Amino acid sequence: MRTMRKQIISLTLALAILPGSVYAQTAGLGAAGELVDPDVLRVCADPANLPFTDEKGEGYENKLAQLVAEKTGRKSISYTWFPMVMGFVRNTLRANRCDIIMGYAQGDELVQNTNAYLRAPYVLMYKKGGPLEGVETIEDPKLADKRVGVVQSTPPASNMAKANLMKKAKIYDLMRDTRFTHSPAELMIKDIESGEIDAAVVWGPMGGYFAKQMKADLAIVPLTKETTGSRMIYRITMGVRPSDQEWKRTLNTVIRENQPAINKILLDYGVPLIDEQNRPITE
């Protein structure tokens, strides 16, 4: 699982009415102080981090990059590959080797965030029809004697600690190079199916994707009803350099005008989208 981060910023009315082919003329090397390539969408990405990105172009952020390239009139897409670990932003976006991180959680000062295109929760996963049927929160007493999987140092870990679930918990590594090892979400699902753990708490886009890929018969419960501890819901944005104001506004326009198409991409990957009232988005 990757460390969570933040967003917010508004659109400009002028860019909102421009067609995609014109966006590129207003946000590129010609924009004062900006180093954004006007012809190539230069993406900073992890080479082996499904469901987000991979070198084969099979992640949903790869698909989002294709949409952004099309809508901004870019002729092609290029990738700067670097594992999503400490130093990712410094060695990619901040080094001017690329111009956009396709998925970045709202609020980190290392990047400038666009408006959010995705709002999703952490999820609780367990076998359907078993003793945990109906559990919707980490605080549920049914979990008291269960072994629950959680990724090290992620927000649910603190909630599990408050619920006294950490003594029996199975901890999965936070930082892992997925070029050489499985995603923690994939490992969690295998452990639930084998009985190694009873349940797992994981970032929703990862849990939803791998459960779908592995055809796992699991309940995937959005953690939208937690009453204490860390928040379980995050907005995901695109990340750009703080100096690239025009580029940010261009991307905000693309997001606003293409949200239904973005939702379709995400839902096809099993991402559990929710709206501002925490209701599931299904289309």
UniProtKB/TrEMBL annotation:
Residues 1-24 form the signal peptide. SMART domains: PBPb. Keywords: Signal. It comes from the Bacteria. InterPro entries: Quinoprotein_dehydrogenase, Solute-binding_3/MltF_N. Gene3D superfamilies: Periplasmic binding protein-like II. Residues 40-273 form the Solute-binding protein family 3/N-terminal domain. NCBIfam families: ABC_peri_MoxJ_2. This is Quinoprotein dehydrogenase-associated putative ABC transporter substrate-binding protein. It comes from Mesorhizobium denitrificans.
